[in-house]
Amino acid sequence: MITITKIFRFEAAHFLPCHLGKCKNVHGHSYVLEIEIEGDRNFEGPEKDMVMDFGNLSKIVNELVIDRLDHKTLNDIFDNPTAEYMVMKIAQWLMPYINIGTNELTQVKLWETNKCCATWKV
């Protein structure tokens, strides 16, 4: 098996209604999203010797995640937009479009800051 990883970025604002610290107030982040896929390389066709074309992966992630979250108030999408909850939901959104054939979404990592991230793994 081979893994591939692609990194995406988006900007968004949120507040954590259940939190007692500073994050209970509206603030923004420059999120970094890492998507990892595991699979066998294709032996024929336009994706020969690839697990998945990075362009096709970008199309899926941009349509299902980035377009939905970029420059949005995340509380309009999630009740409690913690990094942990968001990374789980992002994985759920992507699985039906990535887990095809031998391909499997194996890890989604959402960086809220350059020092803090949440990771979903199979």
Structural summary, described in words:
The structure is a single chain. The protein has 122 residues and is of the alpha+beta class. The protein has a single domain (2-121), classed as Tetrahydropterin Synthase, Chain A (2-Layer Sandwich), CATH 3.30.479.10. It is built from 2 helices and 5 strands. It has a 5-stranded mixed β-sheet with strand order 3-1-2-4-5. A hairpin with a 5-residue loop joins β4 (104-111) and β5. The chain is elongated, with a radius of gyration of 16 Å. The model has no long low-confidence stretch (mean pLDDT 97).
> What characterizes the major β-sheet?
5 strands, mixed
Just give the CATH class: Alpha Beta
> Cα distance, first to last residue?
15 Å
Fraction in beta strands: 25-35%
Overall average residue pLDDT: 97
**Overall CATH architecture:** 2-Layer Sandwich
Envelope shape? elongated
Give the number of DSSP strands.
Answer: 5
| Secondary structural class | alpha+beta
Q: What is the total number of structural domains?
A: 1
At the fold tier of CATH, the topology name is: Tetrahydropterin Synthase, Chain A
